[in-house]
Hints:
Layout: H1 2-20, H2 27-41, H3 47-78, H4 86-107, H5 117-146, E1 151-152, E2 159-160
Antiparallel strand pairs: 1-2
Helix pairs in contact: 1-3, 2-3, 3-4, 3-5, 4-5
Amino acid sequence: xxxxxxxxxxxxxxxxxxxxxxxxFSSQHTSHYIIPFLRWLLPHASPSTLDLIxxxxxxxxxxxxxxxxxxxxxxxxxAGHAGxxxxxxxxxxxxxIGYAALDEFHQSFVPGRTxxxxxxxxxxxxxxxxxxxxxxxxxxxNHRQKRGLPHFSSTPLETTHVK
Length: 163
């Protein structure tokens, strides 16, 4: 059951992303909520501008979902292991890309949805950027630790001081 403790956030987030791949989250359906909000926010914007912003919001959601997914996968892979390894980041990226491809394949069977290679690429970029950010934060934390400055511990709300 130790694997479930590490992987349950990945499974829950993956299930949520699968839910976002249903017809209820198609562009046609999300436009019923997002376009009126954008129209209220930007009353002088043309309909084509609102459609373009809606498009970018949807693509940003792809990026963000897979950014978070990638970090959760990395957390599950390296939980309980000391240090860091480039292969953990690479495995995380491969899992993200595999899941993104499966998700788009699933969308090819959903009415009102289409499978797009560009969406897989956006998803992959979200996962890759997450790994880069995690790597930079790890390097920064290691640098602070070597200088004897407070660094982040394994618990989110606690900091420790290395002497």
